[in-house]
Amino acid sequence: MTHPLPADLHCPRIATREGGPELSRIVAGMWRMTEWGMSVEQRVSFIEQCVAMGVTTFDHADIYGNYGVEGLFGEALRAQPSLRDRIELVSKCGIKLISPARPEHTIQHYDTTAPHIIASAEESLRQLHTDRLDLLLIHRPDPLMDFDEIAEAFTRLRQSGKVLHFGVSNFTRHQFECLNRRFALATNQVEFSPLYTAPMFDETFDGLQDLGIAPMAWSPLGGGRLFNAGDAGAENLRLVIKEIADRLQRPFASVVFAWIMQLPSRPLPLTGTGRLEAIKVAVAGAGFTLAREDWFRILRAARGHEVA
Q1: Backbone angle region of 145, left / alpha / beta, with phi > 0 → left and psi within -120 to 50 → alpha
Q2: Do 97 and 67 meet the contact criterion of CB atoms below 8 Å apart?
Q3: Contacts of 195 (CB under 8 A, 6+ apart)
Q4: What phi and psi values does residue 236 have, to the nearest 5 degrees?
């Protein structure tokens, strides 16, 4: 059963923290863009249509698309320069992939040294055809990361105007707080969905809520597994969400996005699609709140047991 979307869809905006960047509540994730087969004109149109519905924040990483996505997006910004001042660009650095695009890499590893962070940010600026990033994240915690050195790199990039705000991705609460004490971080982008609820229970979201910092949530639909995973637990979860969606006459995925955004830490979920209709469904999730009982029905199905 398909349910119609509201005619007046428009994505709200929030600041991730006091003094932090203001982003669209739904963030358009670009990591699959090399798979979308879009011409430059189609990419421009896609960005413009996202912006028209209030989805103005676009999430990148240097490594996405085998180091190719930022260049594709940058071609669109070069073709339509007026777009840049209407959007927020997020990127990540710190992972070195083995890739024909980086023949000097002999082993996949992390690099969070100041020279690499600065060089990565500058390369992202070149690829994206822009003079600034709105937000730069360290992509993964690095066993060799030196918090003071990362803070120094962030300070240098901010002073040069090349990056306006900084954050991290996939950090534990403790790792986040160690770096945040040295440099004010805007967010922690972590995996979260009804199929992966760990941040709700491992202090990640609690710690961010305590600091007044909104997380970003990647893979909010479980990488699509919410629609097609074959195990009994996922099937039961799907049926519970479908029952609520049908009763509320809302799209299935809108209910999932609403469930995530209802958390008091104020998560910003990422999409991972080139389909505008799917992004509209995500935006619709920002337009309603689930009854507490329905919210807990999804949590119970997600965890496979009652709350104690």
Answers
A1: beta
A2: yes
A3: 222, 225, 226, 229, 234, 237, 302
A4: -65, -40
**Closest CA relative to residue 65, chosen from 143, 117, 10, 128:** 128
pLDDT in tens, the chain (308 residues): 678 898 889 999 999 999 999 999 999 999 999 999 999 999 999 999 999 999 999 999 999 999 999 999 999 999 999 999 999 999 999 999 999 999 999 999 999 999 999 999 999 999 999 999 999 999 999 999 999 999 999 999 999 999 999 999 999 999 999 999 999 999 999 999 999 999 999 999 999 999 999 999 999 999 999 998 788 889 999 999 999 999 999 999 999 999 999 999 999 999 999 999 999 999 999 999 999 999 999 999 999 999 88
3-state DSSP assignment of residue 137: strand
Tokens 């992972």: give the residue: 95
Counting Cβ atoms within 10 Å, is residue 107 exposed (0-12), middle (13-18) or buried (19+)? exposed
Residue 64: active-site member:
yes
Max distance between CA atoms of the chain, in angstroms, equals 56
Q: What is the pLDDT of residue 1?
A: 65
Report the phi/psi class of residue 3: left, alpha or beta, with left for phi > 0 and alpha for psi in -120 to 50.
Answer: beta
Q: Which residue in the list 64, 67, 110, 196 is annotated as catalytic?
A: 64
**How far is it, in rounded angstroms, from Cα 79 to Cα 67?**
20
Residue in 59, 60, 63 with CA at minimum distance from that of residue 24: 59
**Tokens (6 digits) for 261:** 């955004």
Encode burial over 234-258: b for 16+ CB neighbours within 10 A, e otherwise: beebbebbeebbeebebbbbbbbbb
Calpha distance 162→122 (Å, rounded):
8
- For strands 268-271 and 27-29, give the pairing: parallel
